[in-house]
Amino acid sequence: MDWAAVFDRPVIILAAPRSGSTLLFESLSKAAGLWTIGGESHVLIESIAALNPVSGAVDSNRLTASQASPRIIAALRQNFARQLRDRDGQRLLRSGAQPVRMLEKTPKNALRQPFLEQVFPGARYIWLVRDPRQNIASMMDAWQAGRWVTYRKLPGWQGKWSLLLPPGWREQLDQPLESICAWQWRAANATIRSDLADLDRNRWLKMDYQSLIDDPLGCCRKLSEFMDIPLDQRWLDYLKQPLPHSRYTLSAPGAEKWRRHEAAILSVEDQWRPLWGEIG
User: pTM for this structure?
Assistant: First the structure.
């Protein structure tokens, strides 16, 4: 089967870890015109040794066009297509199926846009940004909770590594947690901004996490137009209700919750404030 023919302008969310991308993904997955693999694609992508930092073939989560060999492209398209399902959980027919709109999200994709562009040409990208104080605080909580470990045995690192693995991660050895998380936030958003700058402006949209919280219906109206996905009654009814907590919520969200880590986050303000001033 020509697996490339399955995908029509996939929608890919790009965001730093703990920025609300799961909430956005879950909200968009209620649309009748979007198909997903049912969750995040960590295992699906990194089961290919050439894309997994632990294998030594790559040094971080950064993937570019140079890693997108014909063999890897074909394998990923096939693996994604075989797991696609609609909002009711119905699997995509493997023969005679019409092209569908896939929704894809995993925080590691913040460092993979040039690679994903080769796998899914013509994709649309949603760049989700969140106030770095809230975002970094949530990342610190994730590290401390131990529920978001991405690499248990990372060569050259003492202990377990959580969340995103940008290039240069070895330089974070012996740094305090707040510095590591601020560095991860900056690396994710700076890379997204740089990568998207090379695309036609009509192929990507930046949106703010707080806007999604304050006005989910308004945000998704804008996104439905951007994605060219109709806002049907069932999706509309879902968005009219208060959005439920995402599946990966650690504790009840709150705009001021970050202040538990206020002193630590402000101590590394020079790492996040300049970029936030440019993109926020």
Answer: 0.93
